[in-house]
Amino acid sequence: MDHLRQVLLRWYEANGRSFPWRDEGRSPYELIVTEVLLQRTRAGVVGEFWGGFFQAYPDWCKLAAATQEELSFFLRPLGLWRRRADTLRHLAQVMVCRRGCWPKQRDDLEDLPGVGQYIANAALLLCHDERHPLLDTNMARLLERYFGSRKLADIRDDPYLQELAYRLVRCGEPKAVNWAVLDYAAMVCRPRNPECQDCQARGRCEYAMNT
Question: How remote is the C-alpha of 100 from its chain's centroid?
């Protein structure tokens, strides 16, 4: 695990992608809404859309006041616009009542509209500086290739994969490690045609050693 983490961080320092939501000083509102926008959408697409969205909806109040139709139309370029609009409106309405304060307990977070395991982890990581993984299909793919396959179909329920993800971010730079994994999985450890020959972790990677 230490070797993989070091490889990822070295690579990320030289090759990591630049996105506005990774800049210092972003508000919890910007960070969590971005995570909702990123679900099932490529980061590059969200990057192009990001500035216009937060110019139109700069805070929870503006987002809560938007109509379903207005927000759906605005979100159309990202796909899944009706579902995203519904999630964001209901979440915004609750967060206005909470004055923008995110709960610190997982159960309380997952009681919020549209907040499941991934968004709860994002809130704990990005808003409360706790060591939680942004475990999605990209992180799952990289971890399974390196360490071996999980047993259960749903990554949210698989204890083996969950343990690996938490061990990976159990360090002094959990945000950087999360972003390094996501970028590496998108650019090197791709779903198809991964660049194993150029991967500095290939010597200990089960997938690379068996292909």
Answer: 20
Q: Which amino acid is at 2?
A: D
> Hey, what long-range contacts does 40-44 have (CB within 8 A, 24 or more apart)?
40/79, 40/80, 41/78, 41/79, 41/80, 43/17, 43/19, 43/182, 43/186
CA dihedral 59, 60, 66, 69 (to 10 degrees): 100
* Most distant CA atoms of the chain, gap in Å: 54
CATH architecture of 2-209: Orthogonal Bundle (1.10)
Per run of 10 residues, the mean pLDDT along the chain (length 211 residues) is 96 96 95 94 93 96 95 90 93 95 93 94 95 96 96 94 97 96 96 93 92 80
Domain coordinates of the chain in residue numbers?
2-209
Measured distance CA(129)–CA(152) in Å, rounded: 29
Distance between CA atoms of residues 186 and 19, nearest Å: 14
Q: Which two tokens stand for residue 155?
A: 């990554």
Give the separation between CA 190 and CA 196, rounded to whole angstroms: 10
